[in-house]
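Run log, item B.
One chain of 576 residues. Sequence copied directly from the ordering sheet:
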Amino acid sequence: MKNRCIRVALFLMIFVTSAATSAQQNSLQSGTDDSTITYSADYFQQFSPVSVSDMLDRIPGIELVLNDNQGGFDFGAVRGLGGSSQILIDGKRMAGKANEAQSQLDQIAASEVAYIEIIRASSSDLDVQNTGQVVNIVLKQANSRSNLSFQAGLQSYQDHTVEPLGLLALTGSRGRLNYLVSASAVSGYDYQESFELSLHRDLGFNEIVELDFTREQTIYTLTSNFTYDLNARDRIAFNALYGKNDPPSSLLRKITDFNAIPPATSFEREIIPSTSTNWELGGGYEHNFGSNAKYKFLFIVNDKKAETTRERYQFDDLGEEEHKNLFLNNSSRYRENIIRTSYTWNVAAGQGLELGFEAARTIQDTDLKLGLPVSGQASPQFGDLVPVPLPNAVSTVEEIRYEGFAVHNWKINARMSLESSLVAEFSEIEQTGDISNKRDFNFIKPRFDFRFDVSNALQLRATVEKVVSQLSFADFAAATNERDEDQDTVAGNPQLEQEESWRYTLRLDYRLPDDGGVLNSRLFYYEIENVNARIDVSQQADRLESSNGNVGTGSVLGLNLNAVFALVLSACRRRY
């Protein structure tokens, strides 16, 4: 069956190739012999864009470009900084992780943009590895320019609540200095109503749960990005981010129990105060030598703190006396310190080599408190309920990681290129607190990316790579379960290991003539080891517990066929 699926997929891809090769070229090509597609600022004037986000929304198939590396599946976050980035500004990646280029698109005014490129080639001249397709936003060059933009609006929700939102951004340049400073306030308000009916095996009614949930949330963000050209060869960059997000929630639950005669009704009310703050500092330095050689250095320091308290009260009817039956407090802190440095030079005609090193330190602190109305000494730190000990409730997980990498780009000819990379990773993960555990991990991660430009509009790409996913260190310790109302906490797993996968991808990307849209097909096969999924970690037969764990090996075979067509409507005017 698997071989039949592969044959069908290959037939479909070959069919798309032969049909596309006979079509004419994209009218928006930059005129070069590569597959880079350029949209000038004039192209977007008809749409009256306000920000770069508005401009990107008008590019046919942009969602396929920005999701080009996902393959339809998410196997975990990217480890560290890495050498890739989806969006560049003036050909450079931003020295940030949470504060990276894609998060800044709403802050850059459309009037600042000279043109936008979609780069489908891989090259040592790029500031990053092109693991899919890269969007390069090129700003206008001027000795002095500035642009102040302001956006304000209102958001209406299904319960008729209206919340304001606003954005203030200042962008521009002054001599060798380019800057972007912004402040935003966005509502994260949420209101939900739900109705759940559970049945016995004989289809008799068990209970009905009616739920009203409200979350009051406003996300405040301050960001700044500065780049300064020290001279013609040296450039420094600095950016900073501060975010505050306090999402207090409340809910009212009505429970009708049909096991009682007559059916009994009870209520539960929960108040869930919550706080969350995060900040990030990043910087970079680049020096260009002669003969297209360059040295790069990046660093990032970030910190995120969050605390949520859940207190539940039970009562028989509205207005009657309430009895607290749950206190649950979960606090966490996540920190990263990362440095990355590399040197790139041309080793031969059409061949470039990058050698580099990355080091990272990641720390996750968690603390979980549970209070219940059971026999014992009540404590004000547990909501005046009795503290209940939890295994693995207090934990600090620290990872020290080093990796060396080499990236070789070979321009085989005007239409073919091959990018080969090798990463050697060495890490140590140590957990302290209620549980002590230390483990060492070593990974070798090769990657080969072959690209063939059948024409300026059509590209064939084949990729083979080894991928190691980033663990969520919060899974190492006990935590709250916000998705299951019948399970207050979930156990941690200090033995969790990284998910590893070999990924084989064959892809065709074709842009229709006259910017009419995009046809994209992707055949992929993944072989996965240490698959992360929920496992049973119950210590007692009458108390079921689950946690994230490694369940063995698996494989994924898939075919994605995407088609995006641009619809252009002409406006007609009538004179009277």
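Observations after the first pass:
- Residues 2-21 form the longest helix (20 residues).
- The chain has one domain: 2-315+327-565.
Flagged for discussion on Thursday.
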